[in-house]
Amino acid sequence: METSAQGPQQQILSKTFTDNTLTTPSSLNNNNNKKFEAKEEEQQDSLSLAVMMNNSNQQHIEDHKSKTNKNYLLLLVVNYVCLFLGSTSSTLLSKFYFNHKGSSRWVSTCVQTGGFPLLIIPIYLPYFLKCTERKPFTHFTKKLLILSVFVGIMLGINNLLFSWGNSYLPVSTSSLLLSSQLVFNLILSVLIVKQKVTFSNLNCVILLTLSSVLLALASSNDKPTNISRAKYFIGFFCTIGAGLLFALYLPVMEKIYKKVYCYQMVMEMQLLMQVVATILACIGMALDGGFSEMMKESRELFDKGPTWYWVTVFSNVISWQLCFMGTAGMVFLTSSLTGGICMTALLAINVLGGVLVYKDEFGGMKVVSTALCCWGFCSYVYGLYVKMKEEGKEKKEVEKSIHVREMVHMVNDIP
User: Fold this and answer.
1) What keywords were assigned to this record (predicted)?
2) Domain layout of the chain by residue ranges
């Protein structure tokens, strides 16, 4: 009886002894490490949650740049449509103004940024519609203000160069010359924002450079009959200068936009830049008697009459705002190089518009130049496609490796 009674006790003691022998110092350390890691993860999760709650509005706004945001694609499409409509219509309207005896380059310069009050709509509308809790101009630092003023001065000079170039050149020639800004854009993007150089980038640069050289060789047979050779080449080099300045503007803005965390703030910076550029244009107009010249031009010089004159001016104001808003949005949502590529894609439309609307000459040299421009653009787009495909493959491999690691951890955690 004693033996049978002691059996269960011995079994219990044996089991206890076995469990204790299994609990070695190394296993205790492992258990303690696991508990410590679990506790640390919980603390990190709590801290992350607290940060997200404290900065919920900022996180919501930062998602404007995130490709996983449901509104990202919509915002991107809206900005490209604005760029498409603004670029095409502003080029044709500017040429319409000069073709019908409009001669004030200060007027043409001023209308490019004179519609800055229209930017109040994308700045304040999201706040009033409760799409964001951020009040307009919140966290707009003194540094951003100084940068906006500096870029605004650069933008004002660029607008003047563009007006001079567009007044002396056919639309098709000025559009193709502006394709050179993509070459400058790539080089300056490498220097300023450390853009990676790829085969598609270099191929695009070479093809667009050849396109500009061919256009320059054909320039002597392309000048309008009422423009002297000297003025034609002034327009030629002013357009090149405008392309260079705009190519500098894009990567500079990309670098500045890295400090900006929402689309509304991009529009706020655009508002200040255009105010500065408009003030610069108005000072030039005042010193050169441009305001009185504008009134005289509308009544006496513009051959379509005062009504069509003011319709042209105000239509140009709206079209330029669409163009600048679309450009800024593309740079913010993607990159300066992609923004330049999108603008280059519209050059063929501008060239076609100049030929169809204004009967600009489109000889063999321009055909070859346009073909090279399109070839360069297509090669770049193909390079982007290959890059996105490789990034997608790498992302899948990373997700697969993470999944395998999680499975291994789950197996190891099984007692």
Assistant:
1) Membrane, Transmembrane, Transmembrane helix, Transport
2) 85-395
